[in-house]
């Protein structure tokens, strides 16, 4: 018959002498584990008489409880000691400079858009906004798009499922619907720019399904192409921060302007870079023209009394040209390394006084 007092003294001595948690766990397993010394005593109760089992079982269970209680207390003590040692070991000297952490920055698209808004605001333009989800009237019909125009097809435009009435909403393909909404809600004179996201079914190195545009609109009496030319040439010179800008206008076709033109800027493409204001190459950067009389009529403006001009340019494309970004798709890749390289400080807001970039 095992002496319980001797066994208890021996086990408690082992518990007290455990130097760490692993040693304490070994004592626990040896004493109260499935094959432990105290657990083994409980297995002998089946061979005893009822009276012996009652007396011996109570003593063994009490011994097990005391040992488990001692183990729990010792474990708490060892854990506290380990924590104290870790805190003492892992000290932090607050007088030392902190580790480098990547700082947040302004995305190039937002930086370029802010630069453009700053320039046009200095020229007297207000900022107008509209919804990304548009109807056919504001995106196409009011802008003089023919019924069978390719832009109305699924391969060019993101359409939603038709409504019960058959009308299909769509993701706007340009910010021109903002111009329509402005002409409908305001009386001339009007001078606005419409920055925002636009969507088209297109994707390559210089096109993405979602991109950003800034469009401009001026409606007043006596407006002509000379006003348009001066506005755009002034913007380009200020945006690229050089007075040595040479531009040319080429005839083009847009449903919502007549006459229409594309504007090219003289540049140097040698050496794998594009340098504005030098060289003998030409680069198309925007579309523009005089607002079509049909657009004015659709918005309730008399084309015999008022005239206007409009223009539109890609924010992301201008950012590529100004800051030397080779692939437009990188702007939407969420690569932290790319953002760290091309990002801008949030404390350097573009303005005409201190500079744009």
From TrEMBL:
Q: Which Gene3D superfamilies match?
A: Bira Bifunctional Protein, Domain 2 (3.30.930.10)
Record-listed E.C. numbers: 6.1.1.20
GO BP annotation list:
phenylalanyl-tRNA aminoacylation
The family database entries (SUPFAM superfamilies) matched by this protein are listed as: Class II aaRS and biotin synthetases, tRNA-binding arm
- CC cofactor note: Binds 2 magnesium ions per tetramer.
Which parts of the sequence belong to the Aminoacyl-transfer RNA synthetases class-II family profile domain?
119-350
Span of the signal peptide: none
Q: State the species of origin.
A: Caulobacter zeae
The superkingdom listed in its UniProt entry is: Bacteria
Q: Which EC main class describes this enzyme?
A: ligase
Annotated Mg(2+) binding lies at: 258
Family from the record = Belongs to the class-II aminoacyl-tRNA synthetase family. Phe-tRNA synthetase alpha subunit type 1 subfamily.
Major localization class: cytoplasm
> Subunit composition?
Tetramer of two alpha and two beta subunits.
List the PROSITE patterns: AA_TRNA_LIGASE_II
Reactions catalysed, as given in the entry: tRNA(Phe) + L-phenylalanine + ATP = L-phenylalanyl-tRNA(Phe) + AMP + diphosphate + H(+)
Protein's cellular compartments: Cytoplasm
The protein's required cofactors = Mg(2+)
Q: Which Pfam families match?
A: Phe_tRNA-synt_N, tRNA-synt_2d
Protein keywords: Aminoacyl-tRNA synthetase, ATP-binding, Cytoplasm, Ligase, Magnesium, Metal-binding, Nucleotide-binding, Protein biosynthesis
- Gene name, Swiss-Prot/TrEMBL: pheS
Q: Name one GO cellular component term.
A: cytoplasm
What protein does this entry describe?
Answer: Phenylalanine--tRNA ligase alpha subunit
Keyword Lyase listed? The answer is no
């Amino acid at each position: 018959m095992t002496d319980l007092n001797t066994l208890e003294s021996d086990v408690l001595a082992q518990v007290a002498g455990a130097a760490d948690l692993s040693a304490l766990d070994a004592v626990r397993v040896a004493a109260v584990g499935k094959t432990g010394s105290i657990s083994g005593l409980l297995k002998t109760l089946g061979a005893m008489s009822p009276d012996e089992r009652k007396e011996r079982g109570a003593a063994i269970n009490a011994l097990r409880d005391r040992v488990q209680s001692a183990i729990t207390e010792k474990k708490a003590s060892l854990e506290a000691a380990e924590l104290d040692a870790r805190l003492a070991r892992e000290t932090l000297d607050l007088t030392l400079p902190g580790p480098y952490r990547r700082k947040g920055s302004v995305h190039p698209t937002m930086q370029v858009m802010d630069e453009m808004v700053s320039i046009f605001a200095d020229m007297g333009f207000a900022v107008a906004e509209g919804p990304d989800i548009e109807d056919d009237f504001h995106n196409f019909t009011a802008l003089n798009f023919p019924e069978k125009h390719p832009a109305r097809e699924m391969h060019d435009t993101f359409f939603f499922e038709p409504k019960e009435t058959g009308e299909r909403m769509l993701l706007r393909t340009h910010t021109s619907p903002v111009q329509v909404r402005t002409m409908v809600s305001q009386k001339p004179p009007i001078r606005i720019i419409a920055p925002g996201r636009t969507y088209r079914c297109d994707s390559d190195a210089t096109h993405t399904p979602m991109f950003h545009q800034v469009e401009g609109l001026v409606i007043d009496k006596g407006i002509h192409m000379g006003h348009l030319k001066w506005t755009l040439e002034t913007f380009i010179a200020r945006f690229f921060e050089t007075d040595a800008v040479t531009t040319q206008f080429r005839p083009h076709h847009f449903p919502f302007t007549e006459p229409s033109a594309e504007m090219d800027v003289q540049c140097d493409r040698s050496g794998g870079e594009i340098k504005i204001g030098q060289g003998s190459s030409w680069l198309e950067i925007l579309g523009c023209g005089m607002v079509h009389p049909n657009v004015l009529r659709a918005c309730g403006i008399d084309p015999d009394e008022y005239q206007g001009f409009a223009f539109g340019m890609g924010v992301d494309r201008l950012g590529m040209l100004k800051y030397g970004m080779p692939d437009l798709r990188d702007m939407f890749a969420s690569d932290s390394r790319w953002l760290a390289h091309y990002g801008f400080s949030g404390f350097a807001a573009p303005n005409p006084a201190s500079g744009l970039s």
